[in-house]
Write a structure and sequence with these properties.
Elements (H helix, E strand, L loop, with lengths): L1 H4 L5 E10 L4 H11 L3 H18 L7 E4 L4 H7 L5 H11 L8 E3 L11 H7 L4 E3 L9 E9 L3 H10 L6 E10 L1
Helix pairs in contact: 2-3, 3-5
Amino acid sequence: MEQAFYGRLPIASATSLFLFQQQGTAQKLIHALKYKNRTEIGDFVGELLYSEMTKSKRFEPFDCIIPVPLHQKKLKKRGYNQLTTFGNCLAKNFNIPYSPDVLIKTNASKSQTKKIRWDRFKNAATKFMLTDHRAFENKHVLLIDDVMTTGATLEACCQTLLQTKQIKLSIATIAYTD
C-alpha cells in the first residue's frame, strides 16, 4: 500500500489487512459490515489489524485515529458509519483517541463501488474539511478506511490533513484492491 502513495503523499506508513477480490472473503466481510450493520466484524478486523501492526514493529506510535468521513446524508440514510467499531477497536488497543468528528465530508457523492477507476479519481474532487487544524499539530495521525481502490479518497483526506503544521500521517485499511 505504501508504494501506491509513493510520490503522491508524504506518509509515514501504510497497511491493509486483506486483498480485496470480487466475491472474496474480504468483500463479503466489508459488505456485511457496511450494509448489514454487522458491527462485530469491525471489532474482529480491528483486533486482527492491531495484532498484525504490533507484531510487525514497523509502525511508530500514533496520537489518534481519524476515519474517512461519511457525508451526513449518507450517515443518516445508513444509520451508522461502518468504520466506527473498527476505529474504536484500534483506538482502544493502541490506547489513543478515536476522533470521528474532526474530518468532515462537505459534499455528498454517490457510492463509488460500481465506478471505474477514472471516475473514482474524478470524484476525488470531493471536499473535506478539518474542524481544528491546531489539534493535530505535531501529531502522528492514523487515517482509516474500509477499502482502498485507487487511493483517491484517502489522498483527498490526506491533502486536507496536511494543511496542519508538522502533522505525520499513516494509513490503514481493512482491504485494498490490486
